[in-house]
Structure formats: C-alpha cells, structure tokens
Design a protein that fits this description.
Layout (H helix, E strand, L loop, with lengths): L1 E3 L5 H10 L7 H4 L4 E5 L8 E10 L2 E9 L8 H15 L4 E6 L3 H5 L4 E3 L6 H4 L2 H6 L5 E6 L1
Parallel strand pairs: 4-5
Antiparallel strand pairs: 1-2, 2-3, 3-4, 5-7, 6-7
Length: 146
C-alpha cells in the first residue's frame, strides 16, 4: 500500500535508506506529504518497505530517497513509488523533476528520465542540499519534463 508519508514515518524511512547505503542526509528537510511510503499488507505501524520523495525548489522537483526493502525488490514497487511521486508533482504544477543517482541511471531512464549535464540544472536545483553537498560530483543528473 502506497500512501503519503507522515512525520512518524521519518525514522523508518531513514532506516530503509541506511540499509540500502543511500544518503539520509537532509531527509527531514521536506519530509511529509511530499514523500510517499509503502507498507506491506499487514505490516505493523512503521513497517515500511519503500519510500520516495519529491523535494520542491521553485517550479522544479528533485526526486530523492527512492528506496525499496530487499524483500520487495523486483516486484515493481520502485516503479510504483516513482509513478506516485511523478503524479503528485504534476498535480502540484511542477514543470520538471530532476534526480541524482550513482547506481540506477538505467532504472530511471526506463521511466522516462534523460541524462542531463549537471551545469544545465536550474539554479534552484543546484542550490538544493542534495545537489550541493550530499551527492558526489560523479552522480548522474537526470531530468523528466512534466
């Protein structure tokens, strides 16, 4: 079940990111309804198996913290979480969504994202904490126009 994140989901989302060796830095900055979480059917409160968020910077979104628990990988949950967040971004009227990845450019390309030069990112995205400090310069920047 995918639903909007609640503040009480922050700890479980952070744990998922740490387990997947993804950076949790700054997660709390925009955590809440801009994020979606997935609960396994019958899971206890806080029993999250996936998460994804869109941080908002002006007219642009930054997709981040897309993570799925090992027990649910390969089920389409990652795709469903990204689709949920892209639908949210469209409803919010964002013009494009960006992301940074070191490990999954092919996954995101299959969802319609295209590689983009880091210096082509709008200033709003470049000034985000993830772009400026969290993700290494070797990260691939990708963009999807909405």
């Amino acid at each position: 079940m995918i639903r909007a994140a609640r503040p009480s989901d922050l700890g479980a989302a952070r744990a998922l990111l740490l387990d997947a060796a993804l950076p949790p830095d700054g997660l709390e900055d925009q955590f809440g309804p801009r994020y979606a979480v997935a609960e396994a059917v019958g899971a206890p409160e806080g029993g999250l198996v996936g998460a994804a968020g869109v941080e908002v910077y002006g007219a642009f979104g930054l997709l981040r913290s897309v993570v799925v628990a090992p027990s649910h990988r390969g089920t389409g949950l990652g795709r469903a979480l990204v689709a949920d967040r892209l639908a949210w971004a469209r409803r919010e009227g964002l013009s494009a969504v960006y992301l940074l990845t070191t490990t999954a450019p092919d996954f995101f390309a299959a969802l319609g994202f295209a590689r983009s030069a880091r210096d082509a990112a709008p200033e709003e995205i470049r000034s985000s904490r993830e772009f400026a400090a969290i993700c290494p310069g070797s990260s691939v920047l990708m963009r999807l126009g909405l």
